[in-house]
Amino acid sequence: MKPYCIFIASLVLFAFCSLARSEFSQGPNKCCFSFSNVKIPVKQVESYHTTHLECNRNGVIIITKAQREICVDPTEKWVQRLINLVDAQNMKEMSQSSSGDSD
């Protein structure tokens, strides 16, 4: 009977340790498990970010002005163009806001 109790106690302790470790780990918040093939117009894009390095698949998460998050494949040409356009748009807005501050 004693070995059985020790086994159960060890199993419960292991389960609690696993839960505590997973709650406080610094792993990825969001990963892409599939990619959208729908081309998103740049005027609908608010921002984007890449997925965490620990994700199984590299991806880009597009955030639309309607606050939708859409996973896209960063190797696709249209995605690369979209990222470049969003970056250029952000740079333009930053330069306009900094030149407006000096007036």
Automatic annotation (TrEMBL):
The keyword Secreted applies. CDD domains: Chemokine_CC (cd00272). Residues 1-22 form the signal peptide. GO terms for molecular function: chemokine activity. SUPFAM superfamilies: Interleukin 8-like chemokines. This is Chemokine (C-C motif) ligand 38, duplicate 4. The keyword Secreted applies. One of its GO terms (biological process) is immune response. InterPro entries: Chemokine_b/g/d, Chemokine_IL8-like_dom, Interleukin_8-like_sf. It is found in: Secreted. One of its GO terms (cellular component) is extracellular space. Pfam families: IL8. Belongs to the intercrine beta (chemokine CC) family. Keywords: Cytokine, Secreted, Signal. Residues 28-86 form the Chemokine interleukin-8-like domain. It comes from the Eukaryota. It comes from Cyprinus carpio carpio.
